[in-house]
Amino acid sequence: MSMDFHAESSAGAYASRGADPGWVSAVAGIVDLRGLRVVDIGCGGGIYSTAMAQMGALVTGVDFSARMVSDARERARGLGAGEVRFVQGDATCTGLPDGSADAVLLRALIHHVRSIPAVLAEARRLLIPGGILLIQDRTMEDVLAPPSAEHIRGWFFEILPHLIDVEAGRRPDIEEVDRHLREAGFGAISHHRLAELRRSYDDLASLRADLLSRTGRSILHELDDGQLALLVDGICARIARSAPTDQAIREVDYWTLWWARADHRVQDAVSAAHRPG
């Protein structure tokens, strides 16, 4: 079964950790967010919205789940995160005004949506000319990175290979995203791979508990309880063989990070191409 982002049982699933300082540095190396109006579409529990507010941005987080919006508001209040607000809305129809954003973030979103072009069109509508779009998601190259005591997610696919098919059905490749960006009116497209610290665990028992709770991992909702137990037992056994079990465990995830500019010249050309002759 897929994850139900609206369910009460999802409370806290995407709000219980902080953004990796390495992620903050990677974004700061692309764009100085201080004073910029940023829209975080698919903000979940507000982890990255609050991080960007702490970087000096004026942030609006948007999520289709009332449960997630509630979590995000609670998180922001607890952190005293600065200029950040959260609203419920669809990724293809946020309800925010045209040209109201200097930057838009789509983090871990596009693999969940039915239409990437529709989401990019909404992001383009929100951005001022020259505004920047940031997309963070996994390609199959990221998914299939070799497992290790740090890249724990890699063991999902070694232990339960059928999960590769789940990922292959929802993960875009770099060329596909680049094409969608060009067609949506974006230029100056770049990307690079990002190794992001997801979380540190005090010990193996803490990791086991986190995995069994499926916290922040939608793919684990594709498993029944028996399959999940098999997976977690296998991961813990592999880590125990490769590293001391009484030491902290760092979990690192691999992603691809794209950035592009809303290019009015590209948008004008796209519009002209679709005008009646």
UniProtKB/TrEMBL annotation:
UniProt KW keywords: Methyltransferase, Transferase
Entry keyword annotation includes Transferase: yes
Domain of life, per lineage: Bacteria
GO biological processes: methylation
Pfam families: Methyltransf_11
GO molecular function, one term: S-adenosylmethionine-dependent methyltransferase activity
Leader sequence segment: none
Span of domain Methyltransferase type: 39-135
InterPro entries associated with the record: Methyltransf_11, SAM-dependent_MTases_sf
Name of the molecule in the record: SAM-dependent methyltransferase
Native species: Actinomyces bowdenii
